[in-house]
Amino acid sequence: MFPSIARSLLFISLVAAQTVTYQAESATLTGVTVGTSVAGFTGTGYVEGFDTEGDSITFAINSTKSQLYDLHVIYNGPYGDKYTNVVLNNLAGSQVFLPATTAWTTVSAGQVLLNAGSNTIQIQNNWGWYLIDAITLAPSAERAPHNVTTTPINPNANAPAKSLLKYLGSVYGKNILSGQQDPASLEWVTQNVGKTPAILGVDMMDYTESRMAYGARSTDVEKALEFAKRGGIITFVWHWGAPTGLYDTAEQPWYSGFYTRATDFNIETALADTTNANYTLLIKDIDTIAVQLLKLQDAGVPVLWRPLHEAEGAWFWWGAKGPEPAKKLWDILYERLTNHHGLNNLIWVWNSVNADWYPGNDKVDLVSADTYAQGDHGPISATYNNLLALADDTKIIAAAEVGSVPDPAQLQAYQADWVYFCVWTGEYIDGGSWNSLDFLKETYNSEYVLTLDEIQGWAD
Ligand SMILES: *[C@@H]1O[C@H](CO)[C@@H](O)[C@H](O)[C@H]1NC(C)=O
Ligand SMILES: *[C@@H]1O[C@H](CO)[C@@H](O)[C@H](O)[C@H]1NC(C)=O
Ligand SMILES: *[C@@H]1O[C@H](CO)[C@@H](O)[C@H](O)[C@H]1NC(C)=O
């Protein structure tokens, strides 16, 4: 025992010795100023005044060789939760969450792959309204092998669901599956990029009564069945329109009814009591989409099932009252769909990163995040590392929605092992500003990226 403890202490001190701190007040400042009034900073001050797009700190960093480093930011957050952008060499960027705090706090900003020679790391305004003391860099330790489970949480998971999770496990860390939300956008990829994504993303949105009453109709289940016949993998999200309480005004039309701002539906009171009329309406909606999911089960099609997505963002009503009601609704969904309706073809994909929102390792099959950074093809490594920590590396990790596709070379260099990406619809894939056609062609032809033709027979 003792010698190994001594060795690990020695190891820690060696790593610590390799940590280098770069003071914000000594960097190049754009639109921001040096402050000293909030005590406890390191160096001779900190940087404040992030309040305008374009405000930034640029650190000049030299590295003796090309190497991956762990990057941390020392900050203070007296104005609430904020996001900053951290951009390496004007290329790869990551959105970094700075939780509210009135103490000087160190937060991980993921990893950066420094070039041999000179580099820049820029902290960009994004939400603004935070104080930056310094950044630190330390060479990254080699990533330990993943320890993910490929057994579904549902003990009665059917053979297709089991195969799908097992298949994702075989891909994880070796390749990334390409994915595209919406059948029309997927067809656009086929026509223009010359390859077909491995995963089709579809939506349960237009199957429930509060939307069908206004004329909404969907054929997403039929489209999913067709794509599954072609050997593809299906993921369903659910933009769940509040079952009642839609404002349906010019500003907040009925079709925005999944947004918190478009309804006064209160998830907390609805779930407080199972005899509440609104609880009953929620169950009715779940029963309605169960009918659709059963069609997929009957056809032998497993589903990467991602309800209650982006809950932590609070912009959807299921996240509007904080983590507890959202987690409660997750349990209700699981219980109703699995045990009441006998849906055993679902792989449960959780889609919030914050630990307070996490239902637990026994309640999710995959963890995932949605990230949008226009034109930024970075590896989203800070978010990836947060998801690794969230489930203690026991769950496969997916980029369930992206705007710009991460660059395969960077994914590999950063060991950001997202098992799939799924690009959002319309302009995100075909508009040219989130992803250029050249970039898409290069990416889809990368050996690292798996496409429909390359995954045929995955279920065997
Ligand atoms: C980085 O290296 C360049 C030469 O490559 C040198 O001019 C500069 O002073 C170095 N900067 C730091 C911060 O060490
Ligand atoms: C791997 O994960 C399992 C849970 O799935 C856990 O019990 C075990 O301790 C983990 N092993 C390591 C080396 O982390
Ligand atoms: C159900 O939700 C609607 C819309 O928010 C609300 O007006 C109504 O009071 C709720 N009913 C109950 C019994 O809480």
UniProtKB/TrEMBL annotation:
Q: Superkingdom of the source?
A: Eukaryota
Cross-referenced InterPro entries: CBM6, Galactose-bd-like_sf, GH, GH26_dom, Glyco_hydro_26
Residue intervals of the CBM6 domain: 20-138
Which molecular function GO terms apply here? Answer: carbohydrate binding; mannan endo-1,4-beta-mannosidase activity
Where in the numbering of this chain does the GH26 domain appear? 159-453
Q: Where is the active site?
A: E310, E401
What's a BP term from Gene Ontology annotated to this protein? substituted mannan metabolic process
- The residues the entry assigns to the signal sequence are 1-17
Which UniProt keywords are given for this protein, alphabetically ordered?
A: Glycosidase, Hydrolase, Signal
Membership in a protein family: Belongs to the glycosyl hydrolase 26 family.
Q: Write the protein's name.
A: Mannan endo-1,4-beta-mannosidase
